[in-house]
Each structure stands twice: as C-alpha cells, then as structure tokens.
Amino acid sequence: MLIEIDFNSDEAIYVQLQNQIIMGIAMNLIREGDSLPSVRQLADTVGINMHTVNKAYAILKQEGFIQLDRRRGAVIAIDMDKARALLEMREQLQVLLARGRCKNISKEEVHALVDEIYEEYR
Amino acid sequence: MLIEIDFNSDEAIYVQLQNQIIMGIAMNLIREGDSLPSVRQLADTVGINMHTVNKAYAILKQEGFIQLDRRRGAVIAIDMDKARALLEMREQLQVLLARGRCKNISKEEVHALVDEIYEEYR
DNA sequence: AATTATGTTATAGTATGCCTATAACATAAG
DNA sequence: CTTATGTTATAGGCATACTATAACATAATT
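^ Those are the sequences you sent over. The predicted structure of the assembly is below.
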C-alpha cells in the first residue's frame, strides 16, 4: 500500500498517515490480520522521523484500528466499538453538513456524495 | 445567539467560534443580513482576547460566510460558491466515512444520520 | 551464543501555531 | 468631541509537531 505525504500541507504528518491507513483499510487495500511496515521502515521509506510514525501508530491503536505486536509489528485489528463510532461520526457530520447547508447543498446531494464514496469500498 | 467555549477542548477557540457560528446560520438562528456582535463585544462576553475573535471572523469572511463592515460589524452574507463547497465536503467525507466503514457503519446508517441532522434545519 | 530488528521510552532542540496583552490608527456613529 | 468600530503591529508565554540521539528489553535470525 502506497503512502504519500504532502509536506506543504497544513495537516500534520502523523494525521496524514492515520487518514491514509484508515482509508486503506476501508478500501480493502489492507485487511484484518495484515501487517503494516515497522515504525523504522515506514519512517525510512517516507522520509520522516521514526517518532512521527510511532505517534500515528499509537493513536491508531488507541482508536481501535490496529494492534502493536513486537513480533509482527503493527497488525490491522479492528476493535468494533460501533456505538462510539456512530457518536463521533454524528458530531463531525453536524459541523460538516452545517457548512454545506449554508452553501445550499441539499440533503439529496449529500446522499449522492455518500453513495459515490461508498462505491469505492469493495 | 448563544456561544459557548470549552476551554478544555483540544479544538482551538477560534475554530469553536467558527463552527458555532456556521451551525447557527445553518439552523437559522441567525440569518442573512443579521449582525454578529463586534469583535471586542464578543471577546468580552465570552471571556477571551479580541484577536481570537478577530481571527475567527477573518476566516469566516475569507470562506464566504460573513462580510465585515465598519458600520454594521460582522454581517451574515453567504458567498454561494457551491462547487467549491461540494469539493471540500467530498474530501472531508472521504476521511469521515472511511473511519465509519472500518467500524462497520453501513451506507444506510450514514443516510439516517444525515437525515436526522437535516431535520434540525428549519 | 551473538547479532539484528522490533516496539518503547527518555531527553533535547527547533519551528510553528494559538492565545494573550498593549498599543495605535482611521473611520463612522452618537 | 467622544465613543466604538475594524485593522494592524509587536511581543511574550505556551503547547504542539517534528526531528535527532540514545538507550532498553524482547523476539527473530544467524
């Protein structure tokens, strides 16, 4: 799975790492049980510091996307706390949809966007 | 319109201001043409520095939600750049929905959430 | 047994962003 | 004339992001 960092982005590097890994799982590019590169290895190939990768992995672990194993490295392992996930999605959506609502984006247009994005999950 | 700041949040104060104002517009608590409190006034009632409010207002202006008038203060004035708004919403949704997808949140559940939130817009 | 690679932790330095504090200015309202 | 407005400038404290070294225990490899 290819990971690309935009060093000119205002988004923190470790956040970019998180998001790309999560999107990789959602799109089935990496699956439950697969291993991610080791902290040092990923840091090397991407060209960033070890600790930045370690931070991303630590948060992904805490949020229930991976588990860290000294033998196998970072392994995809989803902790299925759906209720919590729904609550967090609701909070984020409230802000996101409000912005769209101000710009006259209709409920139907949002649905269409959601459907488009879900098409990529196979 | 009531604005409340959580000083323990890891979200920047000026971002909290932005989001609450945008949600206020979306929910029709404040309407096109209405004025927001002045920079100094809002800073005073909320208990923060003038520049923090100024920063929030400046960004809201740049993003096309308000216009700043020396006579009337910050006036709600939506710049209807819908195409841009749709692009930005798409990018945000891609990250948000990927998180949900990993936690087994279905397309239908997202639609239900969207509908719930749109219910508040009247 | 020795070497290597792993996650983990510690310390320290630099850079950037957030928030505050003061101050000053031109302009419009009262 | 006074007051309140947005705007701009400078400066300091603080937290976060990223990097740089270093060290440690543990597991895999040789």
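Residues 10 and 56 of chain A are 16 Å apart (CA to CA). Chain A has a mean pLDDT of 94.

Shout if you want it in another format.
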